[in-house]
User: Fold this.
Amino acid sequence: MSKDYWTTKHPDGWQVKGAGNSRATSVHRTQAEAWSEAQSRARETKGEAYLTGKNGQIRERNTYGHDPRSSKG
Assistant:
């Protein structure tokens, strides 16, 4: 079963939060550490990892399971 993970700002740094979860899966000092964790977890579940900036906008997104995009690239 695929699961998506979001990297977002947290009062104690940056958090990784599974889609649909009310609590953080993990909290990290830096955005880079949290992003790495989100990618790893998404890779394990064949889901997607989302990286948001301090303003809440998506900065990066990686798909690790079935990519519905039909074009090469």
